[in-house]
Amino acid sequence: MRIITVCLGNICRSPAAEAVLKRALQRSGLDSQVSVRSAGTADYHVGEQPYPLTLEVGREWGYTFDSVGAQLTREDIDDADLILVMDESNYDDVLALAGPGDAEDKVHLLGEFASSVDTQGVLEVPDPWQRPKHVFVDMYEQIEDCVEGVVAAIKAGDL
Predict the structure, then answer these.
(1) Alpha helices (runs of H) in 10-132, residue ranges in sequence order
(2) Residues annotated as catalytic (active site), given as ranges
(3) Distant-in-sequence contacts of 118-125, Cβ < 8 A, 24+ apart
(4) What are the domain boundaries of the chain?
(5) Residue 60 in 3-state DSSP?
(6) CATH architecture of residue range(s) 2-156
(7) Residue 3 burial (CB < 10 Å; 0-12/13-18/19+)?
(8) Phosphotyrosine protein phosphatase I domain spans which residues (predicted)?
(9) Which pTM was predicted?
């Protein structure tokens, strides 16, 4: 299975989700069956490292980062089995890039996998760019919760 995590610029949310998902897959023993990478819908930060607070908070939580900013392409969409987007704008952008076809079946909001989805509905992962550190902490908490749901869905064969 090939998964791509997607946000706007690929320096905050999607590299964080990539790191969280990679570690969760490793801990669950699924890392040999699932590859994960991240991309952005815009080209603002191609080739850049993740945002400093993404790295700082992520490293404090024990995550490692090996990706640099990349822009999502049509080929990426075609090759992916699952595309996890952070918000509705990302969702719309990915489907617009994909064009007509069956991409809708593989594009999901990461928030669809949250433990609170039954009580709060599907929540977007807010963009923390240029916000204080505590917003990045909140982002990681939300992503970790959602990733637990993604891994459970993979294990159950739902994805």
Answers:
(1) 13-28, 52-60, 74-79, 88-98, 117-120
(2) 7, 13, 127
(3) 124/86, 124/87, 124/88, 125/7, 125/13, 125/17, 125/86, 125/87
(4) 2-156
(5) helix
(6) 3-Layer(aba) Sandwich (3.40)
(7) buried
(8) 1-153
(9) 0.97
